[in-house]
């Protein structure tokens, strides 16, 4: 059987690195096992769903390297959910309720005051046909709950009813349906909550594996019950730990700091983001993985921690630097051209400066130092004679990497200087800085005429 997995985001905001975690787990599992991946937009919330977010999600996933085999929208599949709701009503498993949110809230508070769990008491099942008609005549519109199979013959006498599955990440899981309220599947206005469309789509599409956050464990017990009532096959479930900030706070679309869009604009490499999203909270070191194929080989669901996966955003930039230092010229050619690096010297320039770049965009600083006009550094009076002497010992061109050693060896013998006293004044004069790439690599790029001008 060919595995079929899915990622079902709501297009109500930009994806952040926490959203990327389940997307990647599903994509990498499908890739490793020769499966297929569906991007399914949970866009039934018409007030909050926006087309701009749909486009952004597609773009962000493509930036990471996720290219779905199929794309679907729940807003185009409403007929399937209406049919499922009709089947459940005909089976007596979907029943009308008329309480207002305020009434439900008061009942929960009364239960809490008595030390009782806040479970819906199925009061709507006691309504007669006449009472329902009176409520609707008074303007009440029903919302609809699924009758959980947690009783024998009397729905008001619940008993422990376990839904059990072998979770591919967390091991054996058990949800007691008697501890839960009957879930609301359909709102007053006839629109559907997340639960029914999700399980109907999984059943109709033939989804074989559902990998998602641990916050859905209880939902899974409920969804299995509804899916079985509708005759759908049960997929294999896996519930991974959630990414949190270093302080343990959950991530939200409302905070744009860790959105994929923002990270891309800040110069993050896609594989730095992907590596952090997948490897945080798992066994082994969090390290920069060069591509998704290699990352798929690193994923071991049995090694994912049961506790939350806390990550430090600073780790992202450590991984980013590792990747940037290894990037070949071909991977950055377009960006260097856009910075204005001379085409004839761009490859040698990148080889010289990439070890000093945490992001590809950092090369712009060194482009200004090498090819433009660097900010002049303060010169110590005692260095002026030394720099004039240095100009006199500058070798003739052509230059290569060995020129720097030839020049500084001659200067060392002529001036008696060595170490920092020899090299630092030269670096300051040539680059305006006290640190940076090897001057042996920069010297041929700057050129003899420009070196003489900067020494003077």
From TrEMBL:
Residues binding ATP: 253
Location(s), subcellular: Cytoplasm
Enumerate the spans annotated as Glutamyl/glutaminyl-tRNA synthetase class Ib catalytic domain: 6-315
Give the Pfam families listed for this entry.
Answer: Anticodon_2 (PF19269), tRNA-synt_1c (PF00749)
Sample GO molecular function, one term: glutamate-tRNA ligase activity
Motif 'KMSKS' region location, chain numbering: 250-254
Which UniProt keywords are present, listed alphabetically?
A: Aminoacyl-tRNA synthetase, ATP-binding, Cytoplasm, Ligase, Nucleotide-binding, Protein biosynthesis
Bilayer-crossing residues are: none
Where the record annotates domain Aminoacyl-tRNA synthetase class I anticodon-binding, the positions are 379-455
Give the E.C. number(s): 6.1.1.17
Record has Lyase as a keyword = no
Similarity comment: family membership: Belongs to the class-I aminoacyl-tRNA synthetase family. Glutamate--tRNA ligase type 1 subfamily.
Q: How does it assemble?
A: Monomer.
Name of the protein in its database record:
Glutamate--tRNA ligase
Q: What is the lineage of its organism?
A: Bacteria, Pseudomonadati, Pseudomonadota, Alphaproteobacteria, Hyphomicrobiales
């Amino acid at each position: 059987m060919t595995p079929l997995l899915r990622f079902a985001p709501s297009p109500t905001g930009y994806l952040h690195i926490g959203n990327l975690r389940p997307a990647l787990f599903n994509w990498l599992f499908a890739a490793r096992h020769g499966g297929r991946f569906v991007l399914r937009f949970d866009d039934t919330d018409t007030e909050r769903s926006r087309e701009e977010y749909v486009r952004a999600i597609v773009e962000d996933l493509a930036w990471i390297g996720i290219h779905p085999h199929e794309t679907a929208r729940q807003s185009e599949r409403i007929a399937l959910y209406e049919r499922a709701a009709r089947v459940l009503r005909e089976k007596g498993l979907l029943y009308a309720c008329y309480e207002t949110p305020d009434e439900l809230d008061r009942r929960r508070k009364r239960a809490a005051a008595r030390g009782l769990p806040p479970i819906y008491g199925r009061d709507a099942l006691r309504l007669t046909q006449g009472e329902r008609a009176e409520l609707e005549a008074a303007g009440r519109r029903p919302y609809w709950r699924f009758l959980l199979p947690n009783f024998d013959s009397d729905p008001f006498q619940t008993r422990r009813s376990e839904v059990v599955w072998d979770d591919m990440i967390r091991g054996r899981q058990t949800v007691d349906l008697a501890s839960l309220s009957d879930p609301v599947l359909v709102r007053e206005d006839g629109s559907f909550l997340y639960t029914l469309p999700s399980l109907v789509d999984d059943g109709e599409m033939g989804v074989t594996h559902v990998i998602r956050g641990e916050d859905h464990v209880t939902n899974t017990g409920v969804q299995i019950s509804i899916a079985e009532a509708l005759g759908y096959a049960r997929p294999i479930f896996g519930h991974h730990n959630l990414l949190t900030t270093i302080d343990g706070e959950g991530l939200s679309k409302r905070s744009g700091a860790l959105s994929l869009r923002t990270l891309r604009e800040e110069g993050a490499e896609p594989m730095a983001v992907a590596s952090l999203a997948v490897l945080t909270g798992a066994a082994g070191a969090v390290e920069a993985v060069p591509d998704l194929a290699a990352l798929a080989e690193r994923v071991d669901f049995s090694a994912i921690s049961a506790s939350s996966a806390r990550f430090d955003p600073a780790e992202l930039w450590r991984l980013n630097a590792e990747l940037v230092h290894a990037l070949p010229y071909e991977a950055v050619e377009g960006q260097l051209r856009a910075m204005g690096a001379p085409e004839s010297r761009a490859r040698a320039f990148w080889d010289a400066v990439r070890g000093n770049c945490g992001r590809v965009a950092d090369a712009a600083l060194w482009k200004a130092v090498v090819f433009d006009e660097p900010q002049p550094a303060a010169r110590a009076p005692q260095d002026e004679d030394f720099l004039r002497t240095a100009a006199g010992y500058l070798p003739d061109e052509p230059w290569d990497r060995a020129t720097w050693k030839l020049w500084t060896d001659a200067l060392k013998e002529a001036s008696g200087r060595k170490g920092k006293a020899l090299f630092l004044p030269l670096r300051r004069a040539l680059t305006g800085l006290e640190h940076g790439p090897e001057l042996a690599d920069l010297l041929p790029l700057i050129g003899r005429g420009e070196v003489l001008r900067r020494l003077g």
